[in-house]
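P.,

For your records, the input lines for the assembly:
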Amino acid sequence: MLEPMMYEGGVYKHNLLVELVEDLGGYILQKNIMQTEVIMIMLVPMKDTSLVEDMTRKLLGELTRAPLSGAEIAVVAPTLAYHHLPHLDCDIAEFLRRKGAKTNMVGLSRGVGSRICQINAYERDLINEHDLAVYIFGNFKHCITESKPKLFEGIEIPIVVTGAPEIASDGVQNADVYVGNLGRVAHRMRKGDEMHAMDMMVAEVGKILDKLREDIGKDQQSVMPPRVKKEIEDQVPEIKQVLSPLPITLRLKGLKVKLDYDEFHAKIGEVSFVEGIKLKDIADIRRSNMKNFILVDIKPKSETGYVI
Amino acid sequence: MEEDEKIIVESPGEEVGAIIYKKVISDVLSDLSLGRVIEKVRVYVDVTEPVFIFVGLRHPGLASVHIKDFADLEIGDYGKQQVLIKLNKEAYIPQLLEKLWERYGRGNIIHEERTLVAVETPDYMDEVDILSEMVIDEKAGEIDDRIVDSMLRIIPEGFRVRYHQMTKEYILFVASEDAIKQEWKDRGQAILDKLLDRVSSNA
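Structure tokens returned:
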């Protein structure tokens, strides 16, 4: 079992930690170097976490649990106009990122209003590529419970809804959870109760992701996504030229590779493992709606018959 | 007293929404530095209709700036067809020159000293009076723009059908998704009349 963790510390000698995690059989999921600071999100074997903690102490860094690591979350706003951005939406996305998630902000083209709001097929498919969607709504109960559920039509992933009024956590039709006290505001979220509401939201997202992981665990994936990430990095050199902050993004069910589908999907399929198996044998490789990237969905054991 | 409050948001059945909306309005007004321009705000929202009515009372606006406010004017020396503008403040020179070039052409404006502008014109006797009344800076126009901007930020984004009145005294804004009904306009007018009444009885 691997434990998701986040390391924050100085750049100096952080390679020692990278090497330690790799030696222990863990994976570095993301490494961001900002001037003299480094933030790393990594998966560490659970029984060896004490070794990583010792090394962190030696490097004077800070180690926290990042329960949302390895998940890609869509933060959905009715539009990207100044009514919604930047304050609430960016703060929520930032909070999710701090716990290790990869977030994408989705602004709907016609998500505003109560009677007139709608979602189109492209947006629906795009949101469905994520592991979970957080919908950020406004201040009026009637609007959230009666009008906006239209925007959930065809969404197959779990949905978390935020808004200002107090509504029972299962009070919004077709949504999994509702989190209150996060309505439309025009200032930065920094007061105590606002921070508390954000923590609540992250906790609810964490719970849903844990449940999803458990479901996936019942029928194990043929290979763990972080291992595929490592193999792609070793065997497809072009990935090093990608300028996105996260060229290979982990999802619960697989990965997203930020290379052009038409040019590279065959090459990604040919990635091989020491067991003599190719990626195309144990995964579906398909086109992403996001910038023609490559989506890799790893098949479960019940389909392939083995786990490597 | 409730009536003395600066911002009141009323929304039947949506108490939390009303409280948060009050914060949104005060944030937007302070972002655009309109806190002292708008005296009183009354908002009525009913999302079941849906309608959003905004009524705001304005402070009497700032006066426009005329040339005579910051300069002395006289006609030029004997034999010269000139108006001389002696500046007491340098703050408005860019706007002043812009206006003068537009009216007399660049070649007729002589600006050799920092605080002295000479305007060459054959009708210098009449022009000296016209010039002293010339408006150089219009504060009110810029504030109107900011008020309209604040309205668009405050009303819910989906409410794209709008009806508005804007005068030097007040702003009345009705917005909805559907065609504006007469009863909404009447309700807005009633809120406005009540506000204006109160203010005049206080005065």
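Two observations worth noting. Chain A has a mean pLDDT of 90. DSSP finds ten helices and 13 strands in chain A.

Regards
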